[in-house]
Amino acid sequence: MLENIDMATYKIEFRRLLEDAPEKRLFSGRSNGEKAHEFFKLDHADKTDFFELEVPEEVVVSSSYFLGMLEDIMRKYDSVDELKQHLDSSSLKGDTLAEYKRALKRGFYTNRGFF
């Protein structure tokens, strides 16, 4: 974890999203991810903050959902590597890990101009 006195840590715990629907196993759709962005109060996150993604192994999160949830955060960084210094994704496994990596590629490709 990076050392910074002003840094906040945001815990993005998908178990909290399962409280009202414990049988849910798929999180998809950019608009749903945007709702998660609000639910986890990521609106005021800045470039110095740290993010912990915690997704249960039995849950799959789509790249579109990740984009909806994290796109505003991605825009604050110049590269995937810079973002990864602030985002702990070690709990991600299998399909969710693949979807997360896909979201990062999509997010950084679409957020960068050609010139």
Question: Can you describe this structure?
Answer:
By secondary structure, the chain is an alpha/beta fold. The chain has one domain (9-111). 43% of the residues lie in helices and 14% in strands. The protein has helices at 14-17, 30-39, 63-74, 80-84, 94-111, and strands spanning 9-13, 26-27, 50-54, 60-61, 87-88. The strands form 2 sheets. It has a 3-stranded parallel beta sheet with strand order 1-3-5. Strands 2-4 form a two-stranded parallel sheet. α3 (63-74) crosses α5. The model has no long low-confidence stretch (mean pLDDT 90).
In which order are the strands of the major sheet placed?
1-3-5
What distance lies between the first and last C-alpha atoms, to the nearest angstrom? 33 Å
Q: Count the strands?
A: 5
Tell me the number of structural domains: 1
The run of helices and strands is EHEHEEHHEH
Indicate the structural class.
Answer: alpha/beta
Structural shape: globular
Strand content: 5-15%
What oligomeric state do these chains adopt?
A: single chain
Indicate the low-confidence ranges by residue numbers.
Answer: none
Q: Mean pLDDT across all residues, rounded?
A: 90
* Total count of helical runs of at least 4 residues: 5
- What gyration radius follows from the Cα positions, in whole Å? 14 Å
- Percent of residues in helices comes to 40-55%
Major sheet description: 3 strands, parallel
Short account of what is shown:
The protein is of the alpha/beta class. The chain has five helices and five strands; from the N terminus they run βαβαββααβα. The strands form two sheets. The chain has a three-stranded parallel β-sheet.
